[in-house]
Structures are given as C-alpha cells and as structure tokens.
Design a protein that fits this description.
About 45% of the residues lie in helices and about 25% in strands. By secondary structure, the chain is α+β, with helices and mostly antiparallel strands. Pfam families: GGDEF (PF00990), PAS_4 (PF08448).
Length: about 325
C-alpha cells in the first residue's frame, strides 16, 4: 500500500478507480512549505462538497471558509510535525447538507522520512451521531411531548433548592393532572389521547416563564418548578394562567373536546426544604383540587398546624450545613 501511494503519479488512474468505489470521502493532499494542496478527491468527496469549481492544485486556505480551513490546517500540521496518523470528529465540513465527519489523516513519507502527502479519509457519521443524541435525550426527556422527564425534573429541583438557599428566594412546586384524557382515549383511541397530552403540554408550557421547568411524569401527570420567586402570589398568577388556558376547547378530527387540569402547589421553604416532601405536599394539594373535577388549584395546607418536626429539622439542619459547606 505504501509503495502504491508513494507512486501517485504512475498509478493515478488505478487508485482513482478504486477510491471512487468507496463511500467514504477520500482526499490526497500535497504538503508544501506548511501549506496543503488538493492533489486528488474521489467521487464521494466531490458529491458531498457540492463543488462549483475544480479545486485540484489549489491550497486549502483558498478553497474553504476561514474557520474551517484554520481548524483543518492545524490538524494537518500536527500530522506533519509528528509523522503519525490523527483521528478526529467535526461538523466543520463544506457540504450542502448537515454533515458530521469522522476523519483519519495519514502521513505518506518520502525516502528521507519527511511527510510529502497526507491521505485523508472522512466517514459520514451524521446519522450515527443523530441517533446517539436521540438515545441520550430519551434518558432525560419525554418521547411524546419533548418535555423533561421525572429524572430531569428532580435534578432541576435539587439545583433550584440549592440556589434558593443561597439567595433567600422561594420556589413553587406544582403537580398537575389532566381531566378527560381517559374519556378521550376510550372514545377516540390512543392516538387522540396522545394528541390531547401533547396539547396539554403545549398549553402549560405557554403559561410559564422561559426559565421555569415543565415536566411530564407519565400519562397526564405533569410537574412545574417555578424557581427564583419573591412571593407566593407570583406562582399563583402562573397557576391561574394555566387554568385559564384550559378554558378553550380542543379539537380532534372536527370533534370539540374539553380538556381540564387540576393543580396542587407547595412552596419552598414554607412547606418543606426537601424536594421529595415538596412533591409529596404538592401531590396532596392536587388530590384536594381534583375532588370537584373543576379547573382549580389548591395550595398545600399543614393540617392543624402540625408537621413532622423530626423530619423537618433533620432536613433543615442538613440543608443549612450543606450550603454553608459549599459557600
């Protein structure tokens, strides 16, 4: 192979026919005074780069955009300096479509041991990377609505509590359940039910601030984190906004349907400073809100002014100690 590549001039037609059968993009660059000149490109390279002109014999910096050429030239220079192959992945590539390339740069040395040519092979890994990102998102986001899932909700609530402890701000945790989703499923099918859940998520998302979190736990159960607020009233405004958004009907195949939602609310630090208790208390308030089956929100109330003091103070002291430790 080395002999074949070193005799580029003699075997040009032979390697051109072979490389044109390869789906990977193949380039042979001539090294001259730390500049890199296009000596050969296979058919796949021409197709992906969608070139409007012949670039054979031209230097890289005069062909590619500045950011791209600067990045690639630094990689090529590294190969010349070390005399060793180099692999990297980048989306910096001239293409008429989204393209992520896995590149291998291979030095071709002359008899003196100097790098005379560089063989570059670029593999299209765009679909592989897209699939990897989709799989990663599945661990943190709900597949149907695109909202954060329970795991992400809990992570963000932890971060919000830590920040609130440092800034003396409040947090509202809201738990929500939809009304009539089961009826829609039973009457119009699960596709219609999925459409209703997506509509529910869309309406809720449109009522909160940009930095607030709306998450789907499963079914028609959702949660909201309203962080960095100065008063409970700020959260109540958002709760009312959510309820008002469900007053308008929802249409499936020309059928007018009425969605509904109940909301339970708990506040940090009023009700608890532990995330699991905040969710638990918001769930209890949600249970009260759903009793009448109307568009309604309820704020958690401590029954008879009683609270599990051992749990409260153990969590409180642990929380204070943690934040003093990291400050």
């Amino acid at each position: 192979m080395d002999r074949f590549l070193k005799n580029i001039g003699q075997d040009a037609k032979s390697f051109a026919r072979i490389f044109d059968l390869i789906k990977d993009l193949v380039f042979i660059m001539e090294v001259s005074d730390q500049s890199f000149r296009y000596l050969y490109m296979n058919k796949s390279a021409y197709e992906v780069m969608d070139l409007k002109q012949d670039i054979i014999g031209k230097e890289m910096q005069y062909v590619l955009p500045k950011e791209m050429s600067t990045f690639l030239i630094s990689k090529y220079k590294e190969v010349v300096t070390t005399g060793k192959s180099l692999e990297f992945e980048s989306n910096l590539f001239p293409s008429n479509r989204e393209f992520i390339g896995e590149t291998s740069l291979n030095p071709i040395l002359n008899n003196e041991g100097d790098c005379q040519y560089i063989l570059a092979i670029v593999r299209d890994v765009t679909e592989r990377e897209r699939h990897r990102i989709e799989l990663a998102n599945m661990a943190f986001y709900d597949y149907l609505t695109g909202l954060p899932n329970r795991r992400t909700f809990e992570d963000r609530l932890t971060k919000a509590i830590n920040q609130a402890a440092r800034t003396n701000k409040k947090i509202a945790v809201m738990m929500l359940d939809g009304y009539n989703i089961k009826k829609i499923n039973d009457k119009y099918g699960h596709d219609a039910g999925d459409m209703a859940i997506k509509e529910m998520a869309f309406r809720i998302k449109g009522c909160v601030r940009q930095n607030d979190t709306v998450a789907r736990f499963g079914g028609d159960e959702m949660g909201i984190i309203i962080a960095n607020i100065d008063s409970n009233e700020m959260a109540e405004v958002i709760a009312n906004r959510v309820l008002e958004s469900f007053e308008a009907p929802f249409y499936i195949n020309e059928h007018e349907l009425q969605l509904g939602v109940g909301i339970g609310v708990s506040f940090y630090p009023d009700h608890a400073i532990d995330k699991s208790l905040l969710v638990k208390y918001a769930d209890k308030a949600l249970y009260d809100a759903k009793k009448k089956g109307k568009l309604e929100y309820r704020i958690f109330k401590i029954r008879n002014n009683k609270i599990n003091l051992s749990t409260y103070f153990s969590e409180k002291f642990r929380h204070v100690f943690y934040n003093k430790t990291i400050d």
